[in-house]
């Protein structure tokens, strides 16, 4: 169990907090930010939530008036100079901070990391970490309780989103009895499960649906069906009218195919930025071990990586690593 005393001490000592998370934030990252900011504001703190990446449209219900999440590139130089403490959620690697990495490196005040991933860089921070937790949102929920906060409707909605998305809406192996007990408490506090589900899964754009169709039509298998994968290029995004965040969850289709042990999605990044990969596994295979070969990380059943090569080369390299891992002989 995490000892939350270091966070409580910082809350007691300081007044102005910065909360941030990883590039291309998902539901766990954004929902955890809502929960943490809510806790800190209940304690009378001045909080700004600033991310490298813009908020994907599917999560706009977490920020109804568009003022909660700020985008780092739009801020005036020095506008965060008054922040005294940096709270970093759902990541433990410099690469996951994107354009904010240099700012965090130079940040003069205390840094706190609240995370559940296995991999870890030296971020010069106090780590409040539990790799057995199903979501960063679970840890923020514990922090709210430890510091005497309240589960307002806003906080409950954010934390329910966090836990629901990192458990695949409670269908992944990381879903435990304690998971369901936790989210039941959030529902009692005001998280509207039907509304959240509609916002997340029943508001697709035409671009996302078209991209999903192309992703599925391009699905390939390897190693006699033990591996399934597909790719998304910049041309695919432009042709379908989709945006990068529309690829979230697409990788789950790869492991929905009978007999697949590892699924992979590789997405081409803009302006020659390489390729972002997502891995999923079944039957207990360790995705994080493969991702680590490319400087990535994550969990046993789900991990991410980035490859600097062009898309066709990246496919070959990651596939080779998967083949070696699945069939070392």
Automatic annotation (TrEMBL):
UniProt domain DDH: residue ranges: 17-163
InterPro entries documented for this protein: DDH_dom, DHH_sf, DHHA1_dom, Oligoribo/pAp-PDE_c-di-AMP_PDE
Gene3D superfamilies: 3.10.310.30, inorganic pyrophosphatase (n-terminal core)
One Pfam family per UniProt: DHHA1
Superkingdom assignment: Bacteria
Domain DHHA1: 226-325
The protein's name: DHH family phosphoesterase
